[in-house]
C-alpha cells in the first residue's frame, strides 16, 4: 500500500497516532503470525485520552499490544515544525513502545531533517527487529514473539521450525 497524508487536519500539531495504532491492533489477525511488529512513524506527538478517537493513552495501548505479543516500535521524526512538542511526544512514545520482553523502550528518535540520520535510525530499528526474530526463532524471550502474548488465544501461531530429527528450534 502507498503512503498518503492523513485527510483530516487538526488545529494543533499533535496527531491521532493512537487511532492508527488501535486500528492496526484490532484489524490485523496477529494470531496468524509468530513474529508481531507494529512500526509507528510520526513527526508529531499523539492526542491523548478524550482528544483521541480511542479515548486511550500510551499505557492502555501498550497493554493491548502486549496482550497479543505485539512489539510496538516508534520512529519519531523530530522535525523543526514540531519542536514545541518534542519532549511530550518523546515521553508518550517511550511509554507506548516499552516492551516487557526486552525490558526497554523501542523508541527511535530521528534528528531534524537529516536524511543520513533517518537512514541510520531505520537501519538500527530494522536490526532490532531482526535480532528479536532471531531470539524468538530459538525459543528465547523476544520483543514481538507470539510466545509473549498474555491474552488467551492470542499466542496461536505457526510453530518455530525445527532441525530435522530434532525437537529443538533450528538456528
What does this structure look like?
By secondary structure, the chain is an alpha/beta fold. The chain contains four helices and five strands. The protein has a three-stranded parallel β-sheet, with helices on both faces. Strands 3-4 form a two-stranded antiparallel ribbon. Strand 3 (98-99) and strand 4 (104-105) form a beta hairpin. Helix 1 packs parallel to helix 2 (58-67) and helix 2 (58-67) runs parallel beside helix 3 (86-96). The longest helix has 23 residues, at 115-137. The two termini are 32 Å apart.
Key terms:
32% helix, alpha/beta
Layout of secondary structure:
Layout: H1 17-27, E1 37-42, H2 58-67, E2 71-77, H3 86-96, E3 98-99, E4 104-105, E5 107-110, H4 115-137
Parallel strand pairs: 1-2, 2-5
Antiparallel strand pairs: 3-4
Helix pairs in contact: 1-2, 2-3
Summing up helix and strand content along with how strands pair, one would put the structural category as: alpha/beta
Give the termini separation: 32 Å
Please give the number of β-strands.
5
Low-confidence stretches: none
Helix content: 25-40%
Instruction: Give the strand line-up of the largest sheet.
Output: 1-2-5
> How would you characterize the largest beta sheet?
3 strands, parallel
From the alpha-carbon coordinates, what is the Rg to the nearest angstrom? 17 Å
Shape: globular
- Sheet-strand content, in percent, reads 5-15%
Element-by-element helix/strand order: HEHEHEEEH
User: What's the oligomerization state?
Assistant: single chain
Tally of DSSP helical segments = 4
